[in-house]
């Protein structure tokens, strides 16, 4: 600090602030600047009166205009909903199992389906619909109950082993737990089942298992093990396994049976959303 | 040039009848300063001469560019706007004659800004604040507003007298008409601005019939207000208080830059001069204050370089006029370098050095940036490809053992007509590529409408055993009918056993 003095060059008083010999001049402020500053103060007081401003203990001052960002958001959401109603009606009027021909309607269905999927389905099937052990991958072409648009929509509506009266239901016996087959027999069947999707020579165990398979399994899974979508019986001859394709997992599946569950979405989601979801899932790459 | 104010400290006869004398005083003179400074109104006197003429021409040219440019037409085919200069925000395009910029190409604007900055540096190091004095919108519009003011209220002294005088019907009428005209100019200024952002003839029609978008009226209102305020009311305060350029200029000028300067060696000691008196033992400055009277910034150039000085050179015109009348050589105030001013009366005047390291550097950088920009502009592809790989799931195993990857392909067609492209993938033997279009049909072709970017979902499928690594580098190639081609590198993911079982 130095004491305020008159600067020789400019003839202006200094403020007395000094850094390394550089002093600050105390030039006058334009008077309009002062007025602008005062006008801002007046403006802010007016703002407090008309706009929401001060926090209170449980609330806040509302302001005379009654402006609320929350109300603005609610309003724009309602407007967006209203603007979609035309698309929603057209989508609902579409015959089941038919993809919209209009690209705009299609993208409306895909967009709505994508967000409904993220909220309702991703918990089990994964955010990328890749599934997990026990929860089918929706991207591939392996479907328990059919991969046509109408099949997917039906599965969404009634669920699997759900509370819906028309629920999809596949009932595989627990061959081990219920004593229908002995453990060595089950192991032989497992070897045979695994051989269906593997090329190469059939082992003697698998050959034994083939007989047992023909006796116990073909009713649902078919002669060649390719499954039956009417019954929700999985294709055992492809390389895809919902509960694991290693020997132990297959033995466990035969012994204990797997009873996967999917809820019914009828009543929980509206018809348009269910249709959007079906179109979205169908579009993921496995749709038939 | 006659100054009718008789209250000058010296009678006209004392300094020669042909030279009028003004009592104009610089507003920033010592002893005029206080804590809050009320603005000292400046009444710039009309100047005549070379630089005033240059300023008129510059003003006419710049205003013509500003007002007429949006009305120029440029044919781009039936699908695109035919306005030569158009900033199309809804369409996300910038059109400038034959150039059309997409949003991701704003680096061209960066390049232009760099060029503009370097140009400003170069001009300033050569000839001082040429921009401030002749081309800055603040200067041009203030000049226009002052001209209107002078037209209605008379020159400096009449204006001062009018302001000091009582409010008469005449005064009220003149002031009212002046502000009306200012507002008309301001509305025209704001009005011209919006034409750069929409089709000018359509918008003009809509504006007239009050069918234009609210935003157009809003911006016209905003620019009307700022033009009126900055050009009519604030004037020189914008330069002294708001603009950073006066602070930067000192770093860009050196002792060889041509600047508007008073030559104290020739002018001092100044003093009134009677006709017929000897010029021996005195300076050439007759202290008539005309240089102060014409100054739109209200300063005295004889005080030397000041941040307020915008280098408009009107003081040169005023002083030359006086020098002609008293029969002395011109350029007591003139464009000179600081080195020239310092040399004073020395016989060997330092030579002008327009070519100096800093000017060479600025010019060289300008050429470099300009060449790089032109090269980039003329070699840029009118076809763009970007590929986003699906990250969730990384890959999908299909029931026949094949592996499928999903990609989103963005294709930019910068042509002015629709084009169809064929996408192929290389680096993966046996891979099948399919485009999923809106109806979920599979196709190999992609059709993109004129001047648009469109996105496509594609699947690449490799049959069982066709891929052996967790990640395989692949290249997408997009070919147009005319042989144009772009490519994009990506990766194909597979399970670590390579799909073999």
Radius of gyration of chain A equals 35 Å
Helicity level of chain B: 25-40%
Q: In angstroms, what is the radius of gyration of chain B?
A: 33 Å
* Poorly predicted runs of chain B: 1-8
Put the structure in a nutshell.
The complex is a heterodimer of chains A (288) and B (501). With 288 residues, chain A is mainly alpha-helical. Chain A contains ten helices and three strands.
Structural write-up:
The complex is a heterodimer of chains A (288) and B (501). Chain A has three domains: 1-59, no CATH class; 88-166 and 268-283, Cytochrome c-like domain (Cytochrome Bc1 Complex, Chain D, domain 2, Orthogonal Bundle); 183-256, Cytochrome c-like domain (Cytochrome Bc1 Complex, Chain D, domain 2). Helix content of chain A is 45%, strand content 4%. Chain A has helices spanning 31-50, 69-93, 103-120, 122-125, 149-158, 183-196, 204-216, 218-221, 247-256, 271-283, and strands spanning 14-19, 22-25, 29-30. A two-stranded antiparallel ribbon of chain A has the order 1-2. In chain B, helix 2 runs antiparallel to helix 15 (357-379). Among the domains of chain B are: 38-251, no CATH class; 383-493, Immunoglobulins (Immunoglobulin-like), CATH 2.60.40. Residues 1-8 of chain B have low confidence and may be disordered. Chain B has helices at residues 50-68, 107-127, 130-135, 137-153, 156-164, 169-194, 200-208, 214-234, 236-242, 245-252, 264-267, 290-294, 314-326, 338-343, 357-379, and strands at residues 36-37, 85-88, 93-96, 99-101, 258-262, 333-337, 383-389, 396-397, 403-413, 419-426, 432-436, 442-443, 445-448, 452-462, 471-480, 485-493. With 501 residues, chain B is α+β, with helices and mostly antiparallel strands. In chain B, strands 7, 8, 9, 11, 12 and 14 form a six-stranded antiparallel β-sheet that branches. The longest helix of chain B is centred in the middle third of the chain and has 26 residues, at 169-194. Classes of the chains: A mainly alpha (288), B alpha+beta (501). Chain A binds chain B through residues 10-12, 26-34, 99, 101, 103, 106-107, 126-130, 137, 139-142, 197-198, 235, 238-240, 282-283, 285-287, and chain B through 30-31, 33-39, 237, 241, 390-393, 396-401, 404, 406, 436, 438-440, 459, 501.
């Amino acid at each position: 600090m130095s004491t305020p003095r008159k600067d020789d060059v400019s003839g202006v008083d200094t403020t007395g602030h000094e850094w390394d010999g550089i002093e600050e001049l105390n030039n006058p402020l334009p008077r309009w600047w002062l007025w602008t500053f005062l006008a801002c103060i007046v403006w802010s007081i007016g703002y407090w009166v008309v706009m929401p401003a001060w926090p209170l203990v449980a609330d806040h001052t509302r302001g005379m205009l009654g402006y609320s960002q929350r109300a603005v958001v609610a309003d724009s959401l309602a407007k967006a909903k209203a603007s979609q109603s035309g698309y929603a009606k057209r989508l609902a009027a579409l015959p089941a199992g038919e993809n919209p021909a209009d690209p705009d309607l299609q993208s409306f269905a895909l967009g709505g389906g994508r967000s409904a999927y993220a909220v309702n389905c991703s918990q089990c099937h994964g955010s990328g619909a890749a599934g997990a052990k026990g929860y089918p991958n929706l991207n591939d072409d392996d479907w328990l109950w059919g991969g046509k648009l109408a099949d997917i929509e039906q599965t969404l509506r009634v669920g699997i082993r759900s509370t819906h009266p028309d629920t999809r239901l596949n009932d595989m016996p627990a061959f081990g737990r219920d004593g229908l087959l002995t453990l060595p027999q089950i192991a032989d069947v497992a070897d045979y089942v695994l051989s269906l999707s593997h090329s190469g020579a059939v082992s003697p165990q698998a050959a034994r298992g083939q007989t047992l398979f023909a006796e116990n399994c073909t009713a649902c899974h078919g002669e060649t093990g390719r499954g039956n979508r009417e019954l929700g019986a999985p294709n055992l001859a492809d390389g895809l396994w919902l509960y694991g394709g290693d020997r132990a997992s297959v033995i466990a599946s035969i012994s204990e049976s797997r009873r996967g569950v999917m809820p019914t979405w009828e009543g929980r989601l509206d018809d348009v959303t269910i249709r959007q979801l079906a179109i979205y899932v169908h579009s993921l790459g496995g749709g038939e | 040039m006659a100054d009718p104010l008789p209250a000058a400290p010296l009678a006209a006869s004392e300094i020669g009848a042909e030279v009028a004398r003004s009592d104009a005083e610089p507003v920033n003179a010592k002893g005029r300063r206080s804590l809050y400074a009320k603005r000292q109104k400046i009444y710039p006197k009309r100047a005549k001469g070379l630089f005033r003429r240059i300023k008129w021409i510059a003003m006419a040219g710049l205003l013509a560019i500003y007002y007429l440019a949006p009305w120029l037409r440029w044919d781009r085919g039936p699908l695109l706007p035919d306005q030569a200069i158009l900033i199309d925000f809804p369409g996300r395009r910038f059109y400038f004659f034959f150039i059309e910029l997409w949003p991701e190409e704003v680096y061209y604007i960066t390049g232009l800004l760099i060029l503009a900055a370097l140009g400003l540096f170069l001009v300033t190091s050569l000839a001082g604040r040429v921009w401030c004095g002749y081309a800055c919108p603040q200067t041009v519009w203030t000049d226009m507003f002052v001209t209107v003011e002078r037209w209605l209220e008379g020159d400096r002294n009449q204006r001062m007298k009018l302001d000091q005088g009582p409010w008469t019907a005449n005064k009220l009428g003149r002031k009212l008409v002046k502000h009306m005209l200012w507002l008309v100019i301001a509305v025209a200024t704001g009005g011209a601005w919006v034409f750069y952002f929409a089709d000018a003839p359509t918008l003009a029609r809509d504006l007239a019939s009050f069918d234009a978008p609210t935003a157009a009226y809003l911006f016209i209102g905003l620019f009307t207000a700022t033009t009126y305020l900055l050009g009519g009311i604030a004037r020189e305060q914008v330069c002294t208080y708001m603009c950073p350029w006066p602070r930067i200029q000192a770093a860009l000028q050196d002792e060889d830059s041509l600047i508007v300067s008073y030559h104290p060696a020739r002018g001092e000691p100044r003093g009134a001069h009677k006709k017929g008196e000897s010029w021996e033992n005195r300076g050439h400055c007759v202290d008539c204050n005309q240089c102060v009277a014409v100054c739109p910034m209200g300063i005295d150039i004889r005080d030397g370089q000041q941040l307020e000085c915008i280098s408009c050179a009107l003081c040169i015109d005023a002083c030359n006029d006086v020098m002609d009348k008293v029969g002395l050589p011109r350029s007591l105030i003139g464009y000179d370098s600081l080195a020239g001013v310092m040399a004073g009366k020395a016989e060997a005047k330092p030579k002008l050095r327009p070519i100096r390291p800093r000017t060479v550097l600025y010019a060289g950088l300008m050429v470099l940036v300009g060449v790089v920009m032109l090269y980039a502009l003329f070699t840029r592809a009118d076809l763009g490809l970007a590929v986003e790989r699906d990250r969730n799931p990384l890959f999908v195993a299909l029931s026949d053992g094949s592996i499928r990857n999903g990609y989103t392909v963005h294709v930019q067609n910068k042509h002015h007509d629709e084009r169809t492209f064929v996408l192929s993938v290389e680096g993966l033997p046996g891979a099948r590529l399919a485009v999923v279009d809106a109806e979920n049909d599979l196709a190999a072709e992609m059709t993109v409408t004129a001047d648009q970017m469109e996105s496509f979902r594609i699947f690449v499928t490799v049959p069982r055993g066709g891929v052996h690594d967790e990640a395989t580098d692949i290249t997408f190639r997009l070919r147009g009918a005319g042989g144009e081609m772009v490519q994009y590198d990506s990766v194909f993911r597979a399970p670590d056993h390579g799909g073999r079982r």
